Amino acid sequence: MKKQTVVVLDFGGQYNQLIARRVREHNVYCEVKSYKTPIDEIRAMAPQGIIFTGGPKSVYLEDSPRMDGEIFTLGVPILGICYGAQFLVYGLGGEIGAANADSAAEFGRTDCNMDTSSPLLKGLRKKSVVWMSHNDYIKKLPEGFRSIAHSDKCPYGAIENAQKKFYGTQFHPEVNHTEQGFDMLGNFLFNVCKCTPDWTMENYAETATRELRAKIGNGKALLALSGGVDSSVACKLLANAIGEQLTCIFVDHGLMRKNEGDEVEAAFADSGVHFVRVNAGPRFLSKLAGVSDPERKRKIIGEEFIRVFEEEAEKIGKVDFLVQGTIYPDVIESGLGDAAVIKSHHNVGGLPDYVDFKEIVEPLRLLFKDEVRALGAALGLSDKLVWRQPFPGPGLAIRIIGDITPEKVAVLQDADAIFREEIAAAGLDRNINQYFAVLTNMRSVGVMGDGRTYDYTLALRGVSTTDFMTADFSRIPYDVLEKISTRIVNEVQHINRIVYDITSKPPATIEWE
């Protein structure tokens, strides 16, 4: 049976993937497509609904992202958000104006009055806080539309054409700051689009297993196994689909956390899959010698990973498919549609132009991190693997600022191990979604044993998040931070100062590089 699909059309904003995340939280499947997607491709998807996202442009400018007007003739419900609402109005003959200081520009939390007779706002409070972020505003509605929400400065905070099932919100229902935003999206999905909440990880596991079996057939596949949650879940999924046709190759690039290579090998020793460990630390470190730029680090590591897999594939025999545990945030941050490239992930934007495999298979490519964990649980993976701390593919290479040396790797491994030990001892390891240490390239003066030191500053990072698209810094108690700091300075050489990163994402990213 073909699953229901909601199409999220991306007009180039940085937070647009949150919309997809919120749709999936309603157990409704969605895919994000660029506004440049041909209309025939969208029609072929037979979407249950379409959502236009926000974007940074003004809809009336010549270089603004626009779609063919045929999008409005598909007979599919549409919800436009911010720029998406303005495009909806503009495309149907309404008028958009440029706001000035005295008119309708709004930013931040805004009180909004709701007309709860609308299917979009049914069951909500008649007045609540929404998150506005717009310079332009809806000046004149197209024929058949009416206002269903307004603020003091914005008469068209939300609009509808109930007959055509077209809706728009000038505010952002996808962000947590909009108090009833999640319910508004639910109303669009269920009241307007008549979706069924059938997107579950149990269903996904069945579908993905069947599709992988059909794609790979009698071929052989190599899985890039890091031992992290993403590649571990991918391993289990592939093992269910193709069994002994799968070989899992764990490349120890010498940039793992302390003792992690041995722990990964032990975890998969009795897994029933072909497991190969390649100790390639010296090879990677020699390639990275003298390299400080983080993008170059990622691309070097990405290419070297592929070359190692190609060499191992030759030993095994003809291998058609390379499998990676790439997940949705990796794809998004490496650039989607007109969205900016935030950073290239070694397994997405860091891949070389030539790859000696028939195809790269990424069974988790459309899943967010919490969906991957849910899938792992549905597949019967142990809690230890499902809840393992996230670790980037380039490893400590992007947690060492500046050039990389074996000595710096050892220092960071020891410091990071202490940080993780103390967080676990404090019972915070399941409350903080990701935590790690960063060896900065900054040195400062310190005093130890009545003597002067001039050593490295270590940064600690801990964040709370559900989707890894946005994150808040974790409020680790001062007494825990104090114990961590004391231990690291006393037990790890060449570190004399500890700082804690209290920046959220955005404006920062979770990793430093």
- The shape, in one word, is globular
Q: Which structural class is indicated by helix and strand composition?
A: alpha/beta
Number of helices: 14
Taking pLDDT < 50 over at least 5 consecutive residues as the criterion, the unreliable ranges are 339-354
Helix content: 25-40%
Largest sheet: 9 strands, mixed
Relative strand content: 15-25%
Radius of gyration: 25 Å
Strand order of the largest sheet: 2-1-3-4-11-10-9-6-7
Distance between the termini: 43 Å
- Average pLDDT figure: 87
Total number of beta strands? 20
Annotate the secondary structure layout:
Blueprint: E1 6-10, H1 17-25, E2 30-34, H2 39-44, E3 49-52, E4 78-81, H3 83-91, E5 95-98, E6 106-114, E7 127-134, E8 136-140, E9 146-150, E10 158-161, E11 166-169, H4 181-192, H5 201-216, E12 221-224, H6 229-242, E13 246-252, H7 260-267, E14 274-279, H8 281-288, H9 294-316, E15 321-323, H10 328-333, E16 359-361, H11 369-378, H12 383-386, H13 406-425, E17 434-448, E18 451-464, E19 472-473, H14 478-491, E20 495-500
Helix pairs in contact: 5-6, 5-11, 6-11, 13-14
Describe this structure in words.
The protein is an alpha/beta fold and 513 residues long. 31% of the residues lie in helices and 23% in strands. It contains 14 helices and 20 strands. It has helices at 17-25, 39-44, 83-91, 181-192, 201-216, 229-242, 260-267, 281-288, 294-316, 328-333, 369-378, 383-386, 406-425, 478-491, and strands at 6-10, 30-34, 49-52, 78-81, 95-98, 106-114, 127-134, 136-140, 146-150, 158-161, 166-169, 221-224, 246-252, 274-279, 321-323, 359-361, 434-448, 451-464, 472-473, 495-500. The strands form 4 sheets. It has a 9-stranded mixed sheet with strand order 2-1-3-4-11-10-9-6-7, with helices on both faces. It has a 5-stranded parallel sheet with strand order 14-13-12-15-16, with helices on both faces. Helix 5 (201-216) crosses helix 6 and helix 5 crosses helix 11. The radius of gyration is 25 Å and the shape is globular. It starts with 5 loop residues before the first strand and ends in a 13-residue tail after the last strand. Residues 339-354 have low confidence and may be disordered.
